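Regression report. Comparing outputs from two consecutive submissions.

Submission 1:
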Amino acid sequence: MIKQLTAALKANPALSGWLVNETATLSSQAFYVMQKKETTRRVETREYQVTVYHRHGEQNAFVGSSSFAVSRKHSKAELAKKIEEAVFAARFVKNKAFDLVKGEGKRTWKEKPESADPFAIIDEIANAFFAAATPVSRFNALEIFHARQTIRIVNSEGVDDTKTLAKIDVEAIPSHDGPERKVELIRMFTYKKVDPDQVRKDAEAAIADVALRYDARKIENVAKADVILSGDDVEDFLRELVADFSYDGVYRKNTDKKIGDAIQSEIKGDALSIGWTLSSKADAFDRDGVLLAPVRVVEAGKLVSYYGSNQYAQYLGLKPNGVYGTIEAAPGKTTIARMKAKPHLEIIALSGIQIDIYSGYIGGEVRLAVWFDGKNRIPVSGFSFSGNIDKALSDLVLSKETVQGVRYHGPKCILLKGMDVL
């Protein structure tokens, strides 16, 4: 199919460049209802995304692009028509001109496949989750997806890169049946490989959290509190902090920060060190074919590098370092036990963290948390917290303990001091 596509693309003289992304996925899936296996299936797909580029305007100052999907064999005439339609659409896009990534011949990266059958791995995970259930707290639904994906990128400048990656996604819905009502939570987990101890801890935490949800009450007589974030909320916090430092953000003037500027104006707590990395050695290139290597964006609380795509790097006259999926941060010196020794709000479920550097805002709507008043742990829900981001960054505490996930490597928890509770 790649040969058919590239031949059709080369035959159109209006193209200044093109890129083909081939994604082949072998997915083993299992669905459980009330802790009983209902359905299993194995799905194999192969999809193609084609992007065409057309230079136009005076002295070819602009480049337009347009994409279309191909999921089956087409005749030469059908492909030619799709390409012509994409070129027509690209004529109306007036991006500043840029060059595609230049290739170095065929290159391949692969993660070592597991020796066990995917369905045996799925059963192992399911059994670990169900073992965590109690007579009143169990998993109403559990869906497990084991996927091995091969991504190939070919472009008109000689890029021909292939990588094979694997991951396991788990969607769990624990429920707690009490005498008054029934409550549920949704929990998502992603694994590169099965660590039985980690899977067990995740399952037990999901069951514990839904039991807390049942007992949660309205928070009272708490106007200010230290807030502890963990899990995906820590990842979201770090991504929000560096989002505007992408080449795209800098080009669009989303930030006024220059290299060397302080992200933390005053460091009373832990100094931030944030960067982007590869989910594994095989995750070696981005969607444009830029080879990836770890990049540090913030070091010792200061901005040390921008990051981002091939297109916007060229607009800024910089070398592209790529579009990454995995963010990382250095840990702190404080244990989680020490973090939790004083009164605090430990967030269990958050609607999402919001950060606005320019208005100085940080906050979020809390769906479930635990208030520790110094003696008792009280589950609470239905409130929000907010504060000043500059002060929060100045007093930030990062946990000594770390996590190593697919999309995030770094401290397991962070503590935001003196947040307003609303």
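Submission 2:
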Amino acid sequence: MLLEVVTPDKKVFEGEASAVTFPGSDGEFQVLSNHAPMISSLGKGKMTIKASGKEEVVVIDGGVMEVLNNKVVVLAESVIED
């Protein structure tokens, strides 16, 4: 599935992913390829992206996500960098 993660300042990630784990407002949840359409609010926490056999962790400070037609778009309020 195509994953796009953006903040008001920049595009954080764009590419193919096999799974993404999100910090939902009511708990953690995961989206896999060909997931049913959905929209969810996101809380502050770790978003784990599995792509090309690797895992990348992005810490976000809330936002919203949408899944539609095997594309996931994440609109994050901000990304917390170390």
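Expected: both submissions complete independently.
Actual: both completed, but the second showed a warning that disappeared on reload.
Relevant detail on submission 2: The CA atoms of residues 34 and 63 lie 22 Å apart.
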